[in-house]
Amino acid sequence: MIAKPTENELIAQCVEAINSTGFAQKIVNYIAHLVQFDCAVILGCRAHKHPIYLYDSIDTRRELLFQRYLTNSFINDPFYIELSKNGHEGVYRLVDISANKDLAAYTQYQQQFYNETGWVDELSISVRTDESRWIVIYLGFLESKQRFSAAQKSTLIAHFSLIKALCRQHWGNNLLLLGPLTTSATGQLIERGLDTFANEQLTTRERQIAMLLVQGCDSNDIAKQLNITLGTVKNHRKRIYAQLKVSSLSEFFQLFLNHLITSE
Prior knowledge:
Layout: H1 7-17, H2 23-34, E1 39-46, E2 52-56, H3 63-69, H4 78-86, E3 90-93, H5 94-97, H6 103-117, E4 121-128, E5 133-141, H7 150-158, H8 160-171, H9 185-196, H10 204-214, H11 219-226, H12 230-244, H13 249-263
Antiparallel strand pairs: 1-2, 1-5, 3-4, 4-5
C-alpha cells in the first residue's frame, strides 16, 4: 500500500509546482490534507468583472458552473458580494456571512447554484494578490448532513499564511489567464474549447483577443498583454462581436460557454 504524502511533502510539492500548470491541483491536495471537502473551485476575482476560471474538481453537473455561475449567478454569491464590498482576506464559512445578506438575492442564488449543483455548504479561502485582485478557493460539501465546522475553519486559519504565500507566489504576478492549463479533464476540455472556438469566423489576431476575453481580460488587459493600443483592441472587439452576432460581453461569454459544453 502506497503511503499518503505527509504535510511537509505536500507543501514541498506546492512549492515545486509554483509557476507550473500543476500548481492548482497541488494546493488543493494540500488543503485536502488539512480539512475534508467534496469538491473545490478556484477563481480569480476582480471587482465588477466576471470571475476568471482557474480550476475545479467538480465531477457532476459541471456545466452549471460555466452556464450559470460564471455568466451571471456569481453576482448573488454571498462570498462574492462580501469580497466586492469589503475586500477582506481570510477564511469564511457560508454561515458566517449569509445571515447579513439580502434574503431575496440569497434565495435566488441558492436556487440557481446550490439547489441545481447539489452543493449544501461552502467555505471560501480568499487571498488578495494586489489592490484589485483576489484568488478565491471555494470548498464544497455535497452530502445533505455535512457542514463546515468551526474547527475546520480554525484549522484553515492556522494555515492561512502559508496558503496565502503560495497563492501569491504563483498567481500574484500574472493576468490570471487560463493557460497553460492543468492536465485535468476540465483543463483539457477548456483547452480544446479555446482551440476550436470561432476558428472559422475570426482572424488569428481576433482569435487571440477573443481567447483573452474568454479568460476574463478587459480591453486594457488585452492591450498590455499583446502590446497594442487600446483603440486597436476596441476595434477588434467590435468586429469580433459583429462576426459572432453578439452585442455584449455577456452574450459573447455565453456563446463560448455553450460552445464549451456542446464540444464536450
